[in-house]
Design a protein that fits this description.
20 strands; alpha+beta; about 20% strand; globular; 5-stranded antiparallel sheet; 16 helices
C-alpha cells in the first residue's frame, strides 16, 4: 500500500481543495514568489492555506493538529532564512496575507484612539490608511515589512525614545491557541501572562489574528537621507556616538547609520569622486512617505546577522574596517558588482527600555541594559545560492571578529563592549535571541507556553522561527 501524499493527507484532514493552494496552482506560485528573500522561497510546502478570519485560522489549526501535519506561519514573509516562515513538502504554510484590515476603533477621547491591525498587513499600507484619518502608530520603518512578525519580535520604530518598541504599544491581541481556542489577551485580566510573553516571544504560543495598538496624531516630520563619501566615516562615527547619548534630550529623534557598498563609477570620474561630496533628501515629509523610501530590494539571497554593543566609536570603526574587507572579497567573487552590503548601526539608548517598562513591560530584557548601546545589523545580498554560501561565511566571520574586538579589555575600557541582547527580527537562525532576554523573561515565556500550549504544538508541529524548547534555564 502506497504512502499518502501530502495533498491526500490535507484533504483527509478536512480541507477542501478550494481552501488550499497547491504547487500546481497559480496562487501558490504567486505567494511563493512574494517572499522578500530568495532563501525563504527555497522551501515548497505541500500547500498554502490562506484564512481570512480568526475562525478560519482556528479551523485550520484544529485540523492540522488532529492529523499531525506540520505547519509554518507567515505574515508578510520578510524574515530571510529558510524555515523561519515557510516549510517543506512535509507540511503546509498558513499564510495570513488576506487578513490585512486597518480599522480605527470608536473612542470618545481623541487622545486615546486605538486601531485594529490584521496580521497580514504591511506597514506601508498601515501608515497610508491611518494617515487618511490623521493618525499614526509606533510600527515598522519599511513599507514591505509585515505587522505580525515585527511586533512579535519586539519591533524597532521611529518612536523608541517616546513610546518604546512596537510591542510596547499593544493594547490587546487576539490569538488562536494550539487547541483552536480564540482568546483575547490584555495587560490586565486572566491572560495577562500571555500578553506579556507575546511582546517579544514570537510564534511560541499561538497564531495572533488581530493586534490592537495605541494610535496618536500624525504630524509632519523632518526626514530623509544624507549621503557621504567613505572618507567621512570617522567623523560620522563620532556623530553617531554623540547622537545616541543625546536621544533622552530629544526623544523624537531617530537615526539609522548605514555603511554600504556602491558600484564604482567609470575610471574617468575618479578624481571628481575623490572630492568631498554630500547629497541630501532631507525635507518635511510624512511617515507614510518616509517608509516608502526605506524599502529594501527584493529578489536577492540574504544573509543577516546582528549584535548589540556599548555606544563606543571604536567598535563601530572596527565594524566599518571589516566591512571594507568583506566588500573587497565580494568584488572578487562577483565581478559585475551585483551585490549589496550594509553595515547598519542604530542608537539603542537606555531610554528605550525605560519606555518599555512604563508601558507595562515586555520579555525582551532591554530594560536591564546598563549602558547606552548600539544595535548592529550586518547584511550581504547576492543573486545566486552558490554566492550565498560564500556570503554567509563572510558575514559570520565579520560578526565574530567584531564581537571579539568588543570583548577585549585592551580595546574597550571598563571590560566587555558586547551587550547581551540579540534582536530577534534581525537574527540569523544560528543565533539565540530568546536566551538573550535574561533568565527571568525566559522563565516567564516558558510558563506561558506550558499553560497555553501544554502539548507543545508550537514547538514541534510548528518548527519554524526561534523556539523556546531549545532554550534552557540556569540550575
Amino acid at each position: 500500500m502506497s504512502e499518502e501524499t501530502p495533498t491526500e493527507r490535507l484533504i483527509k484532514a478536512g480541507f477542501e481543495p478550494k481552501d488550499i493552494a497547491l504547487p500546481s496552482d497559480v496562487a501558490f506560485v504567486e505567494r511563493q514568489s512574494s517572499y522578500f528573500s530568495c532563501n525563504a522561497r527555497t522551501l515548497r510546502p505541500a500547500g498554502i492555506i490562506q484564512p481570512k478570519s480568526a475562525q478560519e485560522v482556528s479551523s485550520a489549526i484544529r485540523s492540522l493538529v488532529a492529523a499531525n501535519i506540520p505547519f509554518a506561519v507567515r505574515s508578510s514573509g520578510h524574515t530571510s532564512w529558510p524555515g523561519s516562515n515557510n516549510i517543506g513538502p512535509e507540511g503546509v504554510t498558513i499564510d495570513l496575507g488576506r487578513m490585512e484590515w486597518v480599522e480605527v476603533l470608536p473612542s470618545e477621547r481623541e487622545e486615546q484612539k486605538e486601531v485594529s491591525l490584521g496580521p497580514g498587513c504591511r506597514w506601508g499600507n498601515v501608515y497610508s490608511s491611518l494617515a487618511e484619518r490623521g493618525l499614526a502608530v509606533a510600527g515598522g520603518r519599511e513599507a514591505y515589512v509585515g505587522v505580525a512578525g515585527l511586533i512579535l519580535g519586539g519591533g524597532m520604530t521611529f518612536y523608541g525614545g517616546r513610546y518604546g518598541l512596537a510591542c510596547d504599544n499593544l493594547c490587546e491581541v487576539e490569538i488562536v491557541l494550539a487547541d483552536g481556542q480564540i482568546v483575547h489577551a490584555r495587560q490586565e485580566g486572566e491572560h495577562a501572562d500571555l500578553f506579556r510573553a507575546l511582546k517579544g516571544g514570537s510564534n511560541n504560543f499561538g497564531i495572533v489574528t488581530n493586534f490592537k495598538m495605541r494610535a496618536f496624531p500624525l504630524h509632519p516630520v523632518w526626514s530623509g537621507f544624507l549621503f557621504h563619501t567613505k572618507e567621512t566615516i570617522p567623523e560620522a562615527i563620532a556623530a553617531l556616538e554623540s547622537f545616541t547619548n543625546e536621544v533622552p534630550n530629544d526623544v523624537d529623534s531617530n537615526l539609522i547609520f548605514f555603511i554600504t557598498y556602491l558600484v564604482p563609477e567609470a575610471h574617468a570620474y575618479k578624481k571628481w569622486l575623490q572630492l568631498p561630496t554630500i547629497s541630501s533628501s532631507c525635507k518635511m515629509t510624512t511617515i507614510p512617505q518616509q517608509v516608502a523610501e526605506l524599502e529594501q530590494p527584493p529578489d536577492y539571497y540574504n544573509t543577516w546577522f546582528t549584535s548589540t554593543f556599548k555606544n563606543d566609536a571604536r567598535i563601530v570603526a572596527k565594524a566599518a574596517e571589516l566591512h571594507q574587507a568583506v566588500v573587497d572579497k565580494l568584488t572578487m567573487l562577483v565581478p559585475d558588482g551585483d551585490f549589496i552590503t550594509q553595515c547598519v548601526f542604530q542608537p539603542l539608548p537606555r531610554i528605550f527600555g525605560q519606555m518599555s517598562t512604563q508601558s507595562g513591560g515586555n520579555v525582551i530584557g532591554i530594560d536591564r541594559q546598563p549602558h547606552n548601546g548600539l544595535l548592529w545589523l550586518a547584511i550581504v545580498r547576492v543573486r545566486t545560492p552558490e554566492l550565498d554560501k560564500h556570503a554567509y561565511s563572510l558575514v559570520r566571520e565579520w560578526v565574530r571578529a567584531v564581537r571579539e574586538f568588543a570583548a577585549s579589555a585592551a580595546n574597550i575600557e571598563g571590560g566587555d563592549g558586547n551587550l547581551p541582547w540579540i534582536y530577534l527580527n534581525y537574527a540569523d537562525k544560528t543565533q539565540d535571541p530568546l536566551s538573550s532576554y535574561g533568565w527571568e523573561n525566559v522563565k516567564r515565556m516558558k510558563e506561558a507556553a506550558a499553560k497555553y500550549d501544554p502539548r507543545e504544538v508550537f514547538q514541534t508541529l510548528c518548527p519554524g522561527g526561534f523556539k523556546l524548547s531549545t532554550v534552557g534555564l540556569p540550575n
